[in-house]
Design goal:
ATP-binding, aspartate kinase activity, VC0802-like, Rossmann fold, binds magnesium ion, binds aspartic acid, binds adenosine-5'-diphosphate, 30 helices, threonine biosynthesis, oxidoreductase, Carbamate kinase, elongated, transferase, 7-stranded mixed beta sheet
Length: about 800
C-alpha cells in the first residue's frame, strides 16, 4: 500500500483536482490519499478568526469568499445533481462557521480549542468535495475522518500525537478489503474528548507520514506544486534545480531550515520504518521528483541544498554573571520551552559570556518576557543583562551529509558571503556537521541564496551585474561590446554579463532581470525616469545583487563622489573617469583601502592610455617586486593627434576643432590643451608606482598663450586659439627649423615629474608616433637600459570601451 498526499495547490482548483484524480486512478496498488485544504483556505480561516476576534464584521466577507472558492470548485468538478448536494453541505458547514465566528466576536475571546475547530474546516471541506468527485469518476473510495483515527493531546494548534493508539486505529480502519482508495483530510486530529486538534501549519504532510507508518506503506508520496525538493527555494533562486536523491537526515535539515516543501516532523514516522518519501509535482507528474531514503546519493555536490528561514529574531543573553555558572542554559531553554517557543538556532561563545538563540519573530515578545522573568534576580543584581532582541533577520543554512568529510565548505561559504557584503550576525554548525547555518539580515536573503547557490551548485557560471553611468560615445560602445560578446563570455569564460541599470545625465533605467541591450536606447527613452545619482544609488542598494559593478563612463566631477559608497557595499567600481584617482591623495588612498577592505575591485585601466594595458602592466611590475625609476611618455592621444595634424595648411584652431568633432578630446578641450589631462595621467602612474604625490607636485610648462589660459569658457578658449594663431605658428616653425616634431611629453625621474611640449628629433622613439597613439617607456630596476615599452591607440571611444570591458571581466576573476 502507498500513501499519497496532495497539498493545497494540488487541490486548489477544479482543474488541479482533476489532475489529482487522474494520478490516483492510475495507481495499481491500494492507496491512502491525504488531502490539504484548497490552497489559501487555511490562511483565510485564520484571517476570518482574527477579524472576528477584533469584532470586525468583515469576517463575514471572508467566509463568503471561502464559500465562493468551494462553490466554483464544485461547479468545475461535479455533474449538476451532485453539485446541489455538495453545495448544500458546504453552505451548512460555513453557516455553522459564521455562528462560531459570531460567538468569537461577541465574547471577544478565541481559545486555541475554538481556533483549531475553525482552521481545521478547510481539510474537511476539501476531502468532502474530492470524495464526491472521485465517486463520480467511479473510484472505489472510502472517506475517513482523520479525527477518528489520529489521537493527540490538548495542544490544539500544535498537537502531539499519541502514536501507539493512533497507529492502531489507523491500521484497523484502513484494513478494509472493500475499498482500494481511502481518502483522509490532512492536518486535523482529535483529543480524547473527540474535540478537533490540528498538527501545526503544513501538518498534512505529517498526517500522511503517520498513516504511512501505521500501514507500513511501501512509499510516501508528497504531491505538491514543484518538481521535488530543490537545491534552494525555486521562488528565490532561478537556477535552483530538483535534487534527485537525498537522505532523510538531509531532508530533515533542509526542511527544518525552511524548505517548506516538506513539514519537518513528517520525517520521523517514516524514518522509524525506513519508508521512502517521493516528492512529486501534481502539475508535472512526469517529472522525476525527489526520492528521500536512508542513503544520500554520493555523487554530485557535497552540499545538497541551501535553505533559509525569514522573520527570525536573535535573542542574546549575556552578562558576567553567566561565566562558569552551571544551569544558565537549562533555565534559559526551560523558560522558552514552558512557553512553547521553538528554538531554531543556538550558539554559545566559548567564554560562556553570552548565548545567542534564533526564534520566530512572532514569538520574540513572549520570549523576552519569559526570559527576563526567569532571570529577574540576576538582572536586578546586574549579573545578567535583560534579553537583547534583534529583528529583521533570517537564517541561511547549507545542508549535506558529506560536508563533514570535506574541508573548506564553511570557509567558502563565509568568504562568498563576505565578498558580497552579506553581514553575518551569528554562525552555528550542527554537531553532526550536516549543516552550517548563519544568521544574516533579512534584506540580504535573496543575494545570499543566489551567491551560495552559484558557489556550490553552478561553479561554472558567474553572473556579473552592471550599473552603467554614462552612455555617450564610450558608454554606448561598451554596451555594444557587451551585447556582441555575451555568448562568447558565457561559453568560454563562464561569465554572464547583465546590465541592470543605465543612466545618462537626463534619464536612467533599472531592470532587475537585465536590460535588453538590443533596445536599450528605445527603452531608456520610453521607460527611463529622471536621472539622479542619489536615487540611482538607492535603487542599486535596494536591488542588492551579488557581483555588482558600478561603471563610470563619464568625465563628470560628481559621479566619483559615489565610489566610496559603492566599494563599502562591496560593489566593484570600474571607471574611465580620472577624477577620483587624480583628486587629492587621501581620497585616492581611501578608495584603494575600501577596495581592499570590502574585496571590491576598483579598476581604472582606461585612465591612462585608453585601452592600452598601462596600469595593469605597471601593477604587475610592482607586484613582482620591481621598482619604477623613470617614466617617459606621450599620454595624450588628443595632443598627439593635434600636433600630428598641425601643419602649414591647417591652423591650430582648425585642428583642435577637428579633434573635438572626432571625439579625441575631452568634452572640455582646455583639459587636454592646458596639460591637466596629462598631469592627471602621470600622477596616476606615480601613485600606482607607490608614490604619495599630488597634482601640484607636477611641473607644467604650458605652451598656451596667456589669453588661452585665462579664457572663462570653451567658446572663449576656442576664440583665443584663433586670435593666437601667430603664437602657435611660431612654435611650429621653430620645431620645423630644428628638424624636430612637437610632442607633448610627460616624464618622471628622480622622484619628480613634469609635463610639457618638447622638440623631438628624428632618432627619438617618439618621433614617429602617429595619429592619436600613446607611448609609455618604463625604466625599472629590471628594465634598466632598454625600457619596457607600451605603444598603441591611446584615445577613441571603441578602444576606451574595450579597456573598460577588460576591467569588468577582471572584476569577475577576483
Ligand atoms: P503544499 O501546499 O503542496 O504543501 P507548500 O507550499 O507547503 O506546498 O510547499 C511547496 C513550496 O515550498 C514550493 O512552492 C516552494 O515555494 C517552497 N520551497 C521552499 N524551499 C523549497 C525547496 N528547497 N524545494 C522546493 N520547494 C521549496
Ligand atoms: N492546510 C494546512 C495549512 O495550510 C495544512 C497543510 O496544508 O499542510 O497549513
Ligand atoms: Mg506544505
Amino acid at each position: 500500500m502507498i500513501v499519497s498526499k496532495f497539498g493545497g495547490t494540488s487541490v486548489g482548483s477544479a482543474e488541479n483536482i482533476k489532475k489529482v484524480i487522474h494520478i490516483v486512478q492510475k495507481k495499481s496498488q491500494k492507496t491512502a490519499v491525504v488531502v490539504s485544504a484548497l490552497g489559501g483556505i487555511t490562511n483565510l480561516l485564520i484571517k476570518a478568526s482574527d477579524l472576528a476576534l477584533k469584532n470586525n464584521e468583515s469576517y463575514q466577507e471572508i467566509v463568503d469568499q471561502i464559500e465562493q472558492r468551494h462553490f466554483s470548485t464544485i461547479e468545475g468538478l461535479l455533474h449538476h445533481d451532485n453539485q446541489t448536494v455538495c453545495k448544500a453541505e458546504v453552505a451548512k458547514r460555513l453557516n455553522n462557521l459564521k455562528e462560531v465566528l459570531h460567538g468569537v466576536a461577541l465574547l471577544n475571546d478565541l481559545s486555541n480549542k475554538t481556533s483549531a475547530r475553525i482552521i481545521g474546516l478547510g481539510e474537511l471541506l476539501s476531502s468532502f468535495i474530492i470524495y464526491h468527485a472521485m465517486l463520480q469518476e467511479k473510484l472505489n473510495v472510502k472517506l475517513i475522518d482523520s479525527r477518528d483515527i489520529i489521537k493527540t493531546n490538548d495542544h490544539y494548534l500544535n498537537a502531539q500525537v499519541h502514536f501507539t493508539e493512533t497507529y492502531d486505529l489507523i491500521s484497523k480502519s484502513l484494513s478494509s478489503k472493500d475499498n482500494n482508495i481511502f481518502l483522509l483530510p490532512g492536518f486535523i486530529a482529535s483529543n480524547k474528548n473527540g474535540e478537533t486538534t490540528t498538527l501545526g501549519r503544513g501538518g498534512s504532510d505529517f498526517t500522511a507520514a503517520i498513516v504511512a507508518n501505521a500501514i507500513s506503506a511501501s512509499t510516501l508520496e508528497i504531491w505538491t506544486d514543484v518538481s521535488g525538493m530543490y537545491t534552494a527555494n525555486p521562488q528565490l533562486v532561478k537556477q535552483a534545480y530538483p535534487i534527485e536523491e537525498i537522505s532523510f537526515q538531509e531532508a530533515m535539515e533542509l526542511s527544518h531550515f525552511g524548505a517548506k516543501v516538506l513539514y519537518p516532523p513528517t520525517i520521523q514516522p517514516v524514518l522509524d520504518k525506513r519508508i521512502p518519501i517521493l516528492i512529486k509535482n501534481t502539475l508535472a507528474p512526469e517529472d522525476k521528483g525527489t526520492l528521500i531514503t536512508e542513503k544520500s546519493l554520493v555523487t554530485g555536490s557535497i552540499v545538497k541544498g541551501i535553505s533559509h528561514i525569514e522573520d527570525i529574531a536573535l535573542l542574546t543573553l549575556e552578562g558576567n554573571g553567566m561565566v562558569g555558572v552551571p544551569g544558565i542554559s537549562k533555565r534559559l531553554f526551560g523558560a522558552l520551552a514552558e512557553n512553547q517557543i521553538n528554538v531554531k538556532f543556538i550558539t554559545q561563545a566559548s567564554s560562556e559570556h553570552s548565548i545567542c538563540i534564533a526564534i520566530d519573530i512572532s514569538e520574540s515578545e513572549l520570549a523576552k518576557r519569559a526570559v527576563d522573568d526567569e532571570f529577574e534576580y540576576e538582572i536586578i543584581q546586574h549579573k545578567i543583562n535583560p534579553l537583547i532582541i534583534e529583528d529583521e533577520l533570517a537564517i541561511i543554512a547549507l545542508v549535506g551529509d558529506n560536508m563533514k568529510s570535506h574541508q573548506g565548505i564553511s570557509g567558502k561559504m563565509f568568504s562568498e558571503l563576505g565578498t558580497n557584503n552579506v553581514n553575518i550576525r551569528a554562525i552555528a554548525q550542527g554537531s553532526t556537521e550536516k549543516n552550517i547555518s548563519a544568521v544574516i539580515r533579512k534584506k540580504d536573503v535573496k543575494k545570499a541564496l543566489n551567491t551560495l547557490h552559484a558557489a556550490f551548485f553552478e561553479d561554472q557560471i558567474k553572473q556579473i551585474n552592471l550599473f552603467v553611468v554614462g552612455i555617450g560615445n564610450v558608454g554606448s560602445k561598451l554596451l555594444d561590446q557587451i551585447l556582441s560578446q555575451y555568448s562568447y563570455l558565457l561559453e568560454k569564460l563562464h561569465l554572464q554579463l547583465r546590465v541592470v541599470a543605465i543612466a545618462n545625465s537626463r534619464k536612467m533605467l533599472f531592470r532587475a532581470e537585465g536590460i535588453d541591450l538590443n533596445v536599450w536606447q528605445e527603452q531608456l527613452d520610453s521607460q527611463g525616469v529622471v536621472s539622479d545619482m542619489k536615487t540611482f544609488m538607492t535603487e542599486m542598494n535596494a536591488l542588492n545583487l551579488r557581483n555588482s559593478v558600478f561603471v563610470d563612463n563619464t568625465a563628470n566631477h560628481k559621479v566619483p563622489g559615489f565610489y566610496a559608497e559603492c566599494l563599502s557595499s562591496s560593489v566593484a567600481v570600474v571607471a574611465c573617469n580620472k577624477i577620483a584617482c587624480s583628486s587629492n591623495y587621501d581620497n585616492y588612498r581611501q578608495l584603494k583601502y575600501l577596495s581592499r577592505k570590502y574585496k571590491a575591485p576598483f579598476l581604472f585601466e582606461t585612465n591612462v592610455g585608453a585601452g592600452l594595458p598601462v596600469i595593469d602592466t605597471l601593477n604587475n611590475l610592482i607586484a613582482s617586486g620591481d621598482r619604477i625609476t623613470e617614466i617617459q611618455a606621450v599620454l595624450s592621444g588628443s595632443l598627439n593627434f593635434i600636433f600630428n595634424h598641425f601643419d602649414a595648411e591647417h591652423s591650430f584652431y582648425e585642428v583642435v576643432k577637428q579633434a573635438g568633432i572626432e571625439g579625441y578630446t575631452e568634452p572640455d578641450p582646455r583639459i587636454d590643451l592646458s596639460g591637466v589631462d596629462v598631469m592627471r595621467k602621470i600622477l596616476i602612474l606615480m601613485r600606482e608606482s607607490g608614490m604619495p604625490c599630488e597634482l601640484e607636485d607636477i611641473k607644467n610648462d604650458s605652451f598656451l598663450p596667456k589669453a588661452s589660459l585665462e579664457a572663462g569658457s570653451v567658446a572663449d578658449f576656442m576664440e583665443t586659439l584663433k586670435s593666437g594663431a601667430g603664437h602657435f605658428e611660431a612654435l611650429r616653425k621653430e620645431a620645423e627649423e630644428l628638424n624636430c616634431r612637437l610632442k607633448y611629453l610627460a616624464s618622471f625621474k628622480n622622484g619628480s615629474a613634469k609635463v610639457g611640449l618638447q622638440h623631438i628629433p628624428k632618432d627619438h622613439p617618439f618621433y614617429n608616433l602617429d595619429g592619436k597613439d600613446n607611448i609609455v617607456l618604463f625604466y625599472t630596476d629590471r628594465y634598466k637600459d632598454q625600457p619596457l615599452i607600451i605603444k598603441g591607440a591611446g584615445a577613441g571611444a571603441a578602444v576606451t570601451a574595450s579597456g573598460i570591458f577588460g576591467d569588468i571581466i577582471r572584476t569577475g576573476n577576483k
